[in-house]
Amino acid sequence: MKALSSLREQFGGISYEYVMIHAPSVTDNEVVQSLIGLDDSLSRDPRFNSGQLETRKDIKGARMPVVQDYLTPFTATMQRELAARGFNIPLSTVTNDMVKQFTGKDLKALIEEDYLSNPQAAAQVVGRFITPDKKIALIMMKDGANLTEKQQIQLGADLENFFKKRFGTMSGVTVSIAGDATLARDFNNHIKNKTILLLLMALIFVIVTLFIAFRRISDTALPIAIMMLSVVWTFGFIGWVGIEYSVAVIAVMPLLLGTALTFVVPFVARYYEEAEQYSVSAGAVGKALIASASLFSSPR
Fold first, then answer.
1. Residue 89 shares a structural domain with residue 161
2. pLDDT at residue 181 above 90?
């Protein structure tokens, strides 16, 4: 944990999100245009510009998300060329028609003939950020270094929404996302979906156990009501103090039910034993409580 904390401090986070773009050709004009303006679009989106993604300074000194894809060297060169010619425009506003007007080539031709055909550029990106057949492209983004578990879950959901809207409407294009934030979101959804099922299974087990032990509906229903009240109080307190919903929190529920069941069965059994000697129920209850307390507190 100390080593990981040190790495986060020195490198500004160690978690990444990986987005895979699958298309007939990831060098098509529409895909390239979306990739060129990706950094700028992420930096202007309020869901990602408050520490959700790590940032760096671009050539203009503006803070931009740490995003890498096969066009990263190309867009860096484009930014320098635009700045050198006095154009102070974000890359998200650059269109295929604008590029064709200035270079005489559309984005696809410019990427394939002038950029990827360069051996030095190809050596940096082909096989790492783009497959040789140009059908899959990889996008890497660095998560914020100080995200809480709740913020990671939200980031995973926001990134999926962002990329599905940006690329999912293109013909023949699909998007796959993986990474720590996405994993946290999926795991949280899985836990939430299974919580009700686990609660029902635990309740059924407790009900069956109590009914077999006492064969009376009252001795089954009353302990169940008390157990459920304790669960509600415990989870209410957890939420009140701000403890986030997690696997550890979920584990409290079966522990509460199991611990309660451990005390209920011998206590009720002892109550019926004492009730035969006392005419008042309060006396039997008190005697049963004292006996049960001494039983569970005695050394074993």
1. yes
2. no
Please give the model's pTM, rounded to 2 decimal places: 0.68
- The residues near 87 (Cβ < 8 Å, ≥ 6 apart) are none
Our measurement of the distance from residue 103's CA atom to the centroid of its chain's CA atoms, rounded to an integer in Å, reads 43
Whether residue 180 lies inside any domain: the answer is no
**Average pLDDT of span 145-149:** 78
Nearest CA among 157, 173, 272 for reference residue 213: 272
Write out 271-295 in H/E/C secondary structure.
HHHHHCCCCCHHHHHHHHHHHHHHH
Beta strand ranges found along the chain (DSSP E)? 16-22, 55-57, 63-65, 67-68, 136-142, 174-179
From residue 161, give the alpha-carbon distance in Å to each of 20, 68, 95.
14, 19, 23
The predicted structure's pLDDT at residue 176: 92
Query: Of 112, 140, 172, which residue is a domain's last?
Result: 172
What per-residue confidence (pLDDT) applies to 300? Answer: 46
Cα separation, 208 vs 201, whole angstroms: 11
More confident residue, 93 or 243: 93
Residue 132 included in any domain: yes
pLDDT at 96: 86
- Strand, coil or helix: what is 13? coil
Query: What residue type is 195 in one-letter code?
Result: T
